[in-house]
Automatic annotation (TrEMBL):
Pfam families: 2-oxoacid_dh, Biotin_lipoyl, E3_binding. Residues 113-168, 287-306 are annotated as: Disordered. Belongs to the 2-oxoacid dehydrogenase family. Transmembrane segments: none annotated. GO terms for molecular function: acetyltransferase activity; lipoic acid binding. InterPro entries: 2-oxoacid_DH_actylTfrase (IPR001078), 2-oxoacid_DH_E2_comp (IPR050743), Biotin_lipoyl (IPR000089), CAT-like_dom_sf (IPR023213), E3-bd_dom_sf (IPR036625), PSBD (IPR004167), Single_hybrid_motif (IPR011053). Residues 126-148 have a biased composition (Low complexity). Keywords: Acyltransferase, Lipoyl, Mitochondrion, Transferase, Transit peptide. This is Dihydrolipoamide acetyltransferase component of pyruvate dehydrogenase complex. One of its GO terms (biological process) is cellular respiration. Its cofactor is (R)-lipoate. Residues 31-106 form the Lipoyl-binding domain.
Amino acid sequence: MLLLRSLRSCPQSFISRFHTSAAYWASRKSLKRFNLADIGEGITECEVIKWSVKPSAAVQVFDPLCEVQSDKASVEITSPFDGVVKELLVNEGEIAKVGKALCVIEVEEDVAEDSDASTTEPEAAQQSTQPVSSVSSPESSVQPDSPSLSRRPHPLDPNVPRTALQTTSADVLATPSVRHFARQKGVDLALLIPGSGKAGRVEKRDVEAYLANVTQGTPAPSQPSTTTDEGADTVIELGRTRYNMWKAMVKSLEIPQFGYSTTFDITTLHDYMAVLNAHIPAQFLPPSHSSSRPNPAISPSSFYPPPSPPPAPEFGHYSRLTYLPILLKTLSKAMLEWPLFRASIVAPAAPADKPTLAIRPHADISIALSTPTGLYTPTLQRVDAASVYALAARLRHLSHLGRQVPCALTPADMPRRGGTISVSNVGGIGDADHASPVLVPGGGVAIVAIGRAKWVWDVNRGDGKGERRLKVGISWTADHRVVEGAELIAFVEAWKAWVEHPQRLIADGV
């Protein structure tokens, strides 16, 4: 009753203004999945290092959510919404994929709805007296719920059009002196991002380079030429994997490297291949081949079923052996004879301390794998304890994962502690006899490149008449800080004795 009496006592013009709003703003809550954006060229995943928020925590736009680590840098991810964090979808230490959700945020959205009350006295508002207009004017000028007064949009907010995210000079990272210099020269700093300084900071030299290009008639970055210059260079940023290769090759210059090349005669091994291929265990054969084998007339399991063999990797089925798994098996035998080549360098804890070598009980060998997304080195662990057939299955499985786009190799395939020897099968790519492999820090104490097997005429065999033999070129590079040249040559000769006399594997119980 008091409210009705107060409304009756109000001037007609005020009541008319109260009813003339065409719409009102209501809010509703919704859940937004915040996806990890593309934070750099070639980066497809990042590790979540630390979360700055917890579930049920209130956040505002630009508040830090988490810190992620890529191969290039550590980046702080900020919130694109005002709201409440409902769920963290990626735990600390786990890998987050670009384009996949990091967390769920509950936000309030403003929704415009038509007012049920129509304007019944529009003309009365126009006939309002001056005192009333002066009183209601301040009320009409303040509209806190209006979207026109919203804050600066977040660059990762998917609801904001890209045209609203244009960078201005005020948003550019630059020192006051550089801003003053740019204003004097009439240069918009937004045209120069990212700069050449740390974290993309625009430096004075960036402004001077821009002015030099303009003086020479080079079009500004924001004004690209509409005509295509067929002779112009195309600048491409290195992808994640290739940039890692860049850093590894630069670090390789810190290692004094010793090289050695020789040739292995694999004619005897070639003669055994037909028998080895005819007896590939059933678990490694493709389903089409394993089903075609006839069942034995008398089953071995008629008295007591034998234990089931370990299954082959998911993509490790094959129907024909190659030389590579046998070469790896024989290499592991030589590594067992030479503990130095089962050793990895342990960096000293303090600069004054001496480095040490950790000798492993088994032969761990890394494989150089060329994939559509770059060069990877997955590791075959405990090669000495695996059969030739099992090694062939693991090699085929790794090769399949590497051919996927993006690469499907997992951290389990590429452990932080890789092999003590790396193997590059260059003969499988080109008609190569020898190569000069490069050893990188953390890549073990040696690396070997295996060329393509070729039939040649060996004049030193056959009582001076010569024989046709199958030979393959072998090229080694060792870390000369820990491996002597004579030691490398003697080790390679030990491996050669296993390769050229594969009958030794039978006596060794393989």
